[in-house]
Amino acid sequence: GRIRARLGDSEGAVAYYEKALAADAGNCVAHNNIGYELYRLGRTEDALKHYRAAIEANPLFALPRINLGIALHDAGDAYGAVKEFRAALELDPANAGAAYNLGRTLAALDEVRDAFDAYSKAIAIKPDFVEAHNNLGLLLKDDAAVACFRKAVGINPAFALAWNNLGNTLLEMGDTEGAVQAYNSAVRHIPKDPFAYHNLGRVSESQGKQDEAAAHYAKAVEVAPQFAPAWNNLGCLRERQGNMAEAEQLYRRAIEANPKFAAGHTNLGRLMCAQNRPAEAAEQFDAALNLTPAKATESRKEIETLRADCVPAPQSTPSAP
């Protein structure tokens, strides 16, 4: 099973782990390993069952608790994930992965102080943990954040996410030149990173360099055709240039690339509204609202306002006397 897993053959690995479990139903390692491969195959519920079986077979085995926590986090059960990561750390206090994943889940719950402590613990255990340095930076601001991102790329210069986060932070601090240098570093180390090209496009656009911005957005979708934000921003650029037909095509490409990309639906609806196509616009605004979380109140309010301004409210029919 492990050999098939190393070869990337999850289906084959599952078959062998099933044979191991047929011989020994209480094999906690086999339960954990089959759970991992099932999760890779998208069979989350089956994976959860095996992780829990591994824990039941050996309550002192920390690894299935970490894997169970990751699966629960990704399934939206953040509090269940936190419980498993903390249990894993009680069993194995020097497990950097458990501390990191605890921090990741606590950050998603906006429990910033506890997330900071968890990431700090992960770094104390494993000082070269680049993802922990990067995520710690996301909890901080300005120079403190910059220091974390620089630490991450110092450990691993090919870690594009940290270069982009460094650039974004520098841009927020008003250091445009430093931001561009960071984005270009991402491109230099990872030529197929769409985020860096997209971010370079945003900077160029803010400087009024429309052709340069368009070239960056085009490069982003060249290296990653499913990268919806670049299609969307290129559409916004074409719309501002007055090319409505191309803008509509680009917004549709953004939605095609990612049907759950709410901004693409919103912009397409807004463009349709400007073209006096209220029924079509309403469909796009409704799609955007369905994709926008309830807690994103400002975004939802903006979409609702656009819809109300575009789509007339139905007139009530007078009652017969």
Notes on the protein architecture:
The protein is mainly α. The protein has 19 helices and no strands. Helix 18 (278-291) runs antiparallel to helix 19. Residues 315-321 have low confidence and may be disordered. The protein has helices at residues 2-6, 10-23, 28-40, 44-57, 62-74, 78-91, 96-108, 112-125, 130-139, 142-155, 160-172, 176-189, 194-206, 210-223, 228-240, 244-257, 262-274, 278-291, 297-310.
Q: What would you report as the Rg, rounded to the nearest angstrom?
A: 24 Å
Residues in helix, %: over 70%
Distance between the terminal alpha carbons, to the nearest Å?
79 Å
Oligomerization: single chain
Q: How large is the share of residues in beta strands?
A: under 5%
Number of continuous helical runs: 19
Q: Pairing-aware structural class of the strands and helices?
A: mainly alpha
Total E-strand runs: 0
* Envelope shape: globular
Mean residue pLDDT: 94
* Unreliable parts: 315-321
Summarize the main sheet. none
The SSE order reads HHHHHHHHHHHHHHHHHHH
List keywords for this structure.
321 residues, mainly alpha, 77% helix, globular, disordered C terminus
